[in-house]
Structure prediction request, 151 residues.
Amino acid sequence: MSTQGGRLSVTELARCEHCAVLRVSGELDQNCEQFFLRAIGTRVLSGHRHLVLDVTALTFCDSRGLNCLLAARWLLRRREGLLLLAGPGRRLSDLLIQTASSELLPTHSTVSGALRALPPHQRPVWPPPAHDDEGLTAPPAACAVDGDAVR
Prediction:
């Protein structure tokens, strides 16, 4: 499922009962903050305690965007969950370091790396299942079990 608000899109890549992996693409700023917060809130209200945000395609994030990420972290922490960022570019990494937010918003170079920070039974299967014959995405995977590897 992909949703778009202005210059920002949020696409669900994988999910299970406890966790969702979302690709955040475009610009996270004042113009898109309400859209972003609604998209995150929807996932949390549906029961996801952990969110992994693939931010490799996030081209811009200003202080308002950073506040959105911190708000999402706060919401997930209240539910004893985590917000993990995967693939931040140089600009986002610099913003996190300059604002001393890097300790609050853990970053990982890949989605697989971020998922390894979660208990195995709370991770979606990664990589997600391939498309079916009709070109539609397969239904969301169940949570991985201890024997399932996250590559």
In short: Residues 70 and 104 are 8 Å apart (CA to CA).
